[in-house]
Design goal:
With 46 residues, this protein is mainly β. The protein has one domain (1-46). It contains one helix and four strands, in the order ββαββ. The model has no long low-confidence stretch (mean pLDDT 82).
Amino acid sequence: MLFLYPNEMPKYINPMIRVVVAKGKTWSFPYLIDKDTFKSGDLEIT
C-alpha cells in the first residue's frame, strides 16, 4: 500500500486499524482492548 504511507506496509499491520492518540503517543484499539487498565505516565484508560 503506497497511498498514505510512503513505504511498503508490513503484512502484520492492518492499515485500517483504529488507534488512540494522546500526548504524542499512539496505541491501537486491539492492544488497548486486551488490557483491563492501561497506564502511560499520568494517562489512564479503563
